[in-house]
Amino acid sequence: MNRTIKYQLNNVKTSYLFSALISYGGLGLFWLVAYLLDPSILEGMTSQPFWLNALSVIIAPFTFLSIMYALFDGLMFFDTAIRFGVSRTSYFITQLVVYIILSLLLSFATGVTEVMWAGSVGNYFTAIGENYLSLGHIAGEFTDSLALAIMMLGIYRFKGKAFIPVVAVFGLALMVVSFAGATGNSAFIQVFVNAFVWFTNNQTIALGLIGALLIGVYYLFITKTEVQD
């Protein structure tokens, strides 16, 4: 297990490096273009405390970290782990822990970058806690990251064939919606409306069910996928 943990920490470090390059490169390019177009834009940075500007810059890479980690999970980390003799069960368990931690970091980082300064430290972090560190929001980030990792593992295992079910499901859904609209089948459309309303009103439960399903699919990929040449 210690070997697996060290390997996972190295994977997080690699993902953070790429996330930092993307985030800081993007920020630098954005501010350069913005300054060239309107030099007075820098004056807006003085409307909030220096520590908040510094925190926003420091935490910026965490907004991309879970995405980069999920991408590398399917395309590189899993393959390397199996070749190095890491237990599939250990890899699966530690990966879930990593994704939970990354979801927490992403939720907090998103809150820092999106919540507007209201003149009070207490109100600022209360807004982050209520809107971004809720169980529903963290579960949403977790399911998004795990879904991306599963997609990457599917590409790793099935190559281009992994896109066939995605295209088929999208095409089938489009045909069903088009047919329902053309025939005026309001009852059929109402089913989707009711499902959407239920999901909105029970977001935490719905995301929990989706998360459990994705964990099961992720486990199957980890335990059943052989190393590809």
Automatic annotation (TrEMBL):
This is Uncharacterized protein. It comes from the Bacteria. Keywords: Membrane, Transmembrane, Transmembrane helix. It comes from Jeotgalibaca arthritidis. The chain crosses the membrane at residues 16-37, 49-72, 92-112, 132-156, 163-184, 204-222. The keyword Membrane applies.
